[in-house]
Design brief:
Four Helix Bundle (Hemerythrin (Met), subunit A)
Length: 138
């Protein structure tokens, strides 16, 4: 079973972002555990729905931070977020319509996407925000 590992490389300088990222790692690992244990498709879909909800909530928080701090790369960051949400919704629709199950590659994709995004775009944004004079909380 694939397991996403939380470590300091995934922690940003912004506590709210880091907390949300840690929760995402927990959700991805719950989905992996559910798959490994052979839980029902209904259970796995419920966890995946929670991943989608948390992703949207987290992206909304980041959007408020970016706007509140006049982050210069806001549109590029929003585009990355929109791309992931679209992929998650497309995959959910495929699961529902095809009757197929979650492939193990979904866990690898989520791990790769979140790790890369946190270590690049989110880290840059967090650095900008923590250095910014604005006092906006997400």
């Amino acid at each position: 079973m694939h397991r996403m590992i939380w470590d300091e490389r995934l922690s940003t300088r912004h506590a709210g972002m880091a907390s949300d990222h840690r929760k995402m790692v927990e959700l991805i690992n719950r989905l992996g555990e559910s798959m490994a244990e052979g839980s029902s498709k209904f259970t796995r879909c419920a966890i995946f729905d929670e991943i989608i909800r948390h992703t949207r909530s987290h992206f909304d928080m980041e959007d408020r931070l970016m706007v509140g701090h006049s982050y210069p790369a806001v549109e590029e960051h929003r585009s990355e977020h929109a791309s992931l949400v679209k992929k998650l919704l497309t995959h959910k629709q495929w699961i529902e319509e095809s009757g197929k199950d979650f492939p193990a590659t979904m866990l690898h994709f989520l791990d790769f996407w979140w790790t890369h995004h946190i270590q690049t775009m989110d880290e840059e944004m967090a650095e900008f925000i923590t250095a910014s004079p604005a006092d906006v909380q997400g």
